[in-house]
Amino acid sequence: MARSRAVVIVAVLAAASALGWWLGRARHSTAVQSRAVVVRAVDGDTIKVREAGGRVETVRLLGVDTPEVHHPTKPVQCFGPEAAAFTAARLTGRPVRLEDDVERHDRYGRRLAYVIVDGRRFDDELLRLGYARLLVIAPNGSHARTMLDEELEARRAGRGLWGAC
Question: What would the DSSP string read from start to end of 19-86?
Answer without folding.
Answer: HHHHHHHHHHHT--EEEEEEEEEEETTEEEEEETTS-EEEEEETEEEPPPSS-SSSPPPTTHHHHHHH
